[in-house]
Amino acid sequence: MSEKIKYELEFVIQSSPQLLFQYLATPSGLSEWFADNVNSRGELFTFIWDGSEEVARLLKRKTDEFVRFSWENNEEDCFFEMRIIVDEITKDVSLFIIDFADEDEVEEAKMLWDNQVSDLKQVIGSK
Known about the structure:
Blueprint: E1 4-12, H1 17-25, H2 27-30, E2 37-41, E3 44-49, E4 52-62, E5 66-71, E6 80-86, E7 93-102, H3 106-124
Antiparallel strand pairs: 1-7, 2-3, 3-4, 4-5, 5-6, 6-7
């Protein structure tokens, strides 16, 4: 199996950290932009797209700051993290994504995140 490449993306989101966090950390919030449906049982989140399911474990979370998930069938050190960064001076809110993909799939994965975050912005009314 090829080594996964870590990549990072940043998106400016016009939202409060508290509101944004609800869309990152709750099944109902995630199902509005990230997947067709999301269910959770404790630390296990089931993401449903077009009838197929993927299970991720919630590894870490800090309220209004970040969530980190690991797909069930992934290597131990691969995860995806959604972190809320607030600029101390301007108070601008950014969504910082950390994820991993196979080397030949990084660009495609970035485009997928672009589309997903575009949906998120639409849902919360951010430009």
